[in-house]
Amino acid sequence: MDKNEIIEKEQIAPNIHSCTVDAPGIAKKALPGQFVIVIPDEYSERVPVTIADWDAEKGYVTIIFLEIGASTQRLAELNTGDDIYSFTGPLGKPFEIENFGTVALVGGCYGIGGIYRAAKTLKENGNKVICFSEARSKFLLYWNKKLEEVADEVRYSTVDGSLGSKGHSFDLLEDNLKSGEHFDRIMAVGCTFMMYRVARVTKPFGVKTIVSMNPVMIDGTGMCGACRLVVEGETKFACVDGPHFDAHKIDWNIVSDRRKAYLEEEIISKER
Amino acid sequence: MTDKQPSKKPKISPKKTPMREQPPEERVNNYDEVPFGYSIEEAVTEAKRCLQCKKPLCVQGCPVEIDICEFIGFIAEKKFKEGIVKLKEKNILPAICGRVCPQEEQCEKQCILGKKNEPVAIGRLERFLADWERNRGEIEIPPKHRPTGKKVVVVGAGPAGITVAADLVKLGHKVDMFEALHKPGGVLVYGIPEFRLPKAIVFKEIDYLKKLGVNLYTDTVIGMIKSIDELLSEYDAVFLGTGAGLPWFLNVPGENLNGVYSANEYLTRANLMKAYLFPKYKTPIIKGRRVATVGGGNVAMDCARTALRLGAEESILVYRRAREQMPAREEEIHHAEQEGVIFKLLSNPAAFRGDKNGWVKEAECITMKLGEPDDSGRRRPVPVEGANFRLPIDVVIIAIGNSPNPLIPSTTKDIEVSKWGTIITDPQTGKTSKKGVFAGGDVATGAATVILAMGAGKIAARGIHEYLKTSNW
Ligand SMILES: Cc1cc2nc3c(=O)[nH]c(=O)nc-3n(C[C@H](O)[C@H](O)[C@H](O)COP(=O)(O)OP(=O)(O)OC[C@H]3O[C@@H](n4cnc5c(N)ncnc54)[C@H](O)[C@@H]3O)c2cc1C
Ligand code: FES
Questions:
Q1: Would you state the pLDDT for residue B1?
Q2: Ligand 1: residue whose CA is nearest its atom 27
Q3: Ligand 2 site-directed mutation target among A47, A49, A216, A218, most atoms within 8 Å of CB
């Protein structure tokens, strides 16, 4: 319904872009944890992307995306002043937010941006908020200052040890839990592998863990079932029933198989 | 020379003037439309078969009451312009209805000629007029009423919404239309394939709607970006034509394996996202060598025929009843058979099995037989003990039906829905349980037909107009 003009675009880390779009209707309605469906140009796919930030007054919405497939590559090629072909949202249910006590927010890859507004809102609701931000190396981290401004504490992990603890965020989280640290709730946004590992780490400690699923989607409104996953034996559509689910109730085998469905096609469509 | 002139009218041909079409072996390799449509001569010949009954029965079979005899009369006299004007008085989507309506169940079923011979080919003549006008490039814009100052919002740009929008804008109301997807048209665009309904035709009709003065906004999911209550604060009335877009699954083991699609997903990839032009268009679709489509309706036929065009070696239709019970239009079944779709009737999948990477590789099917009639009047399929069989396949499409998307009712507490999820409406006016909100089409009836959605749109437009005039609820 808006013109979807790109107001600002920046490569914030290698292959990771932030893009601010003029979309007042969405900016007015967005809540933490919701997403948009973006079609960069008429040939592209419908790509679901988490809303990382927004400014309701200015009418701006910011997304962070990883340049991986043909369609996100096309999105990365657009510049300030260009109109995005289609930009639909807000979609999905927002994060459940109340005063839980102490909350750990785990973000990796696009999810570092994905946890930012949740951290802000959780803090405003009286929680103690600890963010876990992870990447392979220090230069792949972004929004450190933004997160530090809204959270009580940000804990970094890098696989090469260039910043914070060496290893993954879930390794650090496991150490923290083992040493007796208490969390009332854990939320994770990022790649499937990371979220799966967070789920495995937190399960023995019985901490309620919410993950933000990112399956293949088409419409994003519950019309196609492409995004389906199995939660406690029941089929759910991530776009409307989620994207946030209890990590300990998800059938992760199905999730990982379904994510691999279009690997070959991805390669072909990138080559052309 | 003059002494042997026939005194009687020429004898009426017992059969419809045939419509030329692409040969099956050719068309399975392309996405072009199958039938070519009548030439002027063919149309005039066919129109002359019409008896021009004083009290035409055909009209009674038409959900939108087109003056069928009259427009056919104009074709017979080669007055095509008058014909299309007459046709469009009642139906703003003739190019579409001429192609996808089940005429054999409606107007043509009532045709007097049809009692002994084949009925007049009403659908083909409707299509002819609409195509004639479009190819001529001059579309008449009917005169508009004075602005009434009333504002109406139409949610969903399918046939129901299009009809409501057109009727109300012509009456002088301001009409805004919101569509969730990036293209308008509803099922006409995301569901029905190009080879049956070229999308260029649908977009032409949408252009016409815009020319009438309707403001169309795509990419707008009502219930998310705006609630119904918010719409009611901005508009005098709301029409919900959001269709029946929620896909059903069989709920059998293995249905979440890779390669198992809902019909909606499969068709949306192929049609809306143009996966048949991959990789020019970037949305992929798993083509499959042996594709099984489960179901027996129009949607199932569309999927099975799309699979052939995408290059499947075998496209197998798995249906739990017999051919006679198939809900698809006869023409669709016939076309599917001609093209080589394999019909596995009286069969129902009980489970799907996959390989170690999570890809579907086989369907375990139960053999069925027909038992006593059920609520729908069709004989109920019952399993035959010990007659299971395995069907090796690599893509499965589940085309067993859809119900309305719960998004709007679930975010609008005072809109009543039935136990099937359909919005409850007053059949005379389209009113829902919520003041100022009307609904019609598949969202009210469950998955039905284009023409019934348009008929419901007509009724709701009348209901809305009345409400805007009187404010009576
Ligand atoms: C594959 C297939 C083949 C078919 N073949 C035939 C045929 O040959 N002949 C025939 O007569 N009928 C056929 N049908 C049925 C026919 O297409 C439908 O009955 C008809 O389109 C219903 O019209 P509608 O306007 O009620 O809904 P739809 O066409 O479903 O349109 C609803 C629109 O509303 C939009 N929408 C939904 N929710 C929202 C929201 N929250 N906010 C904004 N927009 C929203 C949807 O995106 C969609 O565009 C077929 C259906 C399918 C799926
Ligand atoms: S993306 Fe289509 S149903 Fe979720």
A1: 45
A2: B243
A3: A218
Give the model confidence (pLDDT) of B34-91 as tens digits.
999 999 999 999 999 999 999 999 999 998 889 999 999 999 999 999 999 999 888 9
Residues B373, B266 share a domain: yes
Query: What pLDDT score does B357 carry?
Result: 87
Residue numbers in B near A233 (CB within 8 A):
none
- The answer to whether residues B344 and B319 touch, using CB atoms and an 8 Å cutoff, is yes
d(CA B55, CA B18): 27
CA distance A68 to B316: 36
User: B286 and A261: CB-CB below 8 Å?
Assistant: yes
CATH of the domain at B201: 3.50.50.60
Closest approach of A42 to chain B, Cα-based (Å) = 8
Q: What is the 3-state secondary structure (H, E, C) of chain B?
A: CCCCCCCCCCCCCCCCCCCCECCHHHHCCCCCCCECCCCHHHHHHHHCCCCCCCCCCHHHHCCCCCCHHHHHHHHHCCCHHHHHHHHHHHCCCHHHHHHHCCHHHCHHHHCHHHHCCCCCCHHHHHHHHHHHHHHHCCCCCCCCCCCCCCEEEEECCCHHHHHHHHHHHHCCCEEEEECCCCCCCCHHHHCCCCCCCCHHHHHHHHHHHHHCCCEEECCCCECCCECHHHHHHHCCEEEECCCCCEECCCCCCCCCCECEEEHHHHHHHHHHCCHHHCCCCCCCCCCCCEEEEECCCHHHHHHHHHHHHCCCCEEEEECCCCHHHCCCCHHHHHHHHHHCCEEECCEEEEEEEECCCCEEEEEEEEEEEEEEECCCCCEEEEECCCCCEEEECCEEEECCCEECCCHHHHHCCCCCECCCCCECCCCCCCECCCCCEEECCHHHHCCCCHHHHHHHHHHHHHHHHHHHHHCCC
Q: Which residues of A touch B261 (CB under 8 A)?
A: 225-226
**Structure tokens, B246:** 């929620």
Structure tokens at A182: 């208490």
Ligand 2 centroid to residue A240 C-alpha, Å: 7
Which structural domain, as residue segments, surrounds residue A36?
6-91
Look at residue B173 and tell me if it is in a domain: yes
Q: What is the mean pLDDT of residues A145-171?
A: 95
**Nearest-by-Cβ selection for A272 from B221, B258, B279:** B279
Q: What is the largest CA-CA distance in chain A?
A: 53
Q: How far apart, in whole angstroms, are the C-alpha atoms of residue A36 and residue A90?
A: 5
- From the CA of B159, how far away is ligand 1's center (Å)? 7
pLDDT digits (tens, 9 = 90+) for B165-202: 999 999 999 999 999 999 999 999 999 999 999 999 99
Out of A91, A235, A253, the one facing B221 most closely (by C-beta) is: A91
Distance, in angstroms, between A178 CA and closest chain B CA?
35
Asked if the structure places residue B111 within a domain, the reply is: yes
Does residue B6 sit within a domain? no
* CATH assignment of the domain containing A201: 3.40.50.80
Residue A219 Cβ < 6 Å to ligand 2: yes
> The domain containing residue B86 runs over which residues?
24-136
Q: Are residues B396 and B407 in the same domain?
A: no
Q: Give the Å distance between the CA of B446 and the centre of ligand 1.
A: 10
Q: Does ligand 2 lie within 6 Å of residue A164's CB atom? A: no
CB contact residues (below 8 A), chain B span 362-391, against chain A: none
User: Other CB atoms closer than 10 Å to residue A272's CB: what's the count?
Assistant: 9
Q: Taking a C-beta distance cutoff of 8 angstroms, is the pair B293, B315 a contact?
A: yes
DSSP state of A162: S
